[in-house]
Amino acid sequence: MFRLRPGYPWRVLEEVTATRYVTPLREGGSLPGVVEADDLGTYVVKFRGAGQGRRVLVAEIICAELARRLELRTPDLKVIDLDPRIGAREPDQEIQDLLQASEGRNLAVDFLPGALGFDPLAWTPDPGLASRVLWFDALVHNVDRSWRNPNLLVWHGNIWLIDHGAALWFHHNWPTADPQRRFDARDHVLAPFATRVKEADAELPALITEDLLRTVVDLVPGEWLDGEPGFADAAAVRQAYVDHLLARAHGPRAWLPEVPR
Ligand SMILES: Nc1ncnc2c1ncn2[C@@H]1O[C@H](COP(=O)(O)OP(=O)(O)OP(=O)(O)O)[C@@H](O)[C@H]1O
Ligand SMILES: [Mg+2]
């Protein structure tokens, strides 16, 4: 049985300031960068000015912070303040443009040094873990955990979840958001190992309370929710995320796929 880890006291994400742009991560479609900060930490920064904009960062926060509270490993998140001049010596114009478009607050993901990309041919994950990850991805509708692009890292012998920017895609078109929309698990990298999805579905919803969802959604900086079309203010957008995920976690199971063998 899974219980909540005690001690998540914080109500906002910690804030750090970028001090050095180290290198771009060119394998990431959104051109994230490795960046050092004033707390001496090293982070993978997902930039607000990248292609799909701030909603991607909202999805990253809500999903990773929810995953963490379901005992799935995911790197710590912080908000990082960026002065684009720290990248002034980067010769690539695309990076210059991205930094210029991202002045101010961005998302920092704790860098896991020496982590390897998960390869289903090299690692056999525990069926319970595989099933919980698949259930979670179905809940948040994360289409970016395929065998082509697993977005899982292996670090210190454990599987870590990264890159939730493509999840919660209903938020790109709120009027059509449907908490019952079915998740297609056919491409999911852990589907071959996920033999205990029913057990995951029996355990995890009890952890996903309204309070828990509110705590997670409250971690999103208000300025990334302000001005969302169709909503009066950031508080209304937060409520919509809570309502959607609560309805999905506790309503009918039309969204949960049979896992293909
Ligand atoms: N916290 C981390 N620690 C170490 N390496 C990381 C971390 N986060 C990301 N990476 C590496 O950087 C790559 C790109 O990161 P990420 O998947 O988050 O970016 P993206 O632009 O959203 O990618 P995608 O092309 O999948 O949309 C990852 O595949 C991984 O190799
Ligand atoms: Mg990725």
TrEMBL record:
The record's annotation in InterPro entries points to: HipA_2
Q: Which Pfam families match?
A: HipA_2
Give start and end of each HipA-like kinase domain.
Answer: 25-255
Name by which UniProt lists this protein: HipA-like kinase domain-containing protein
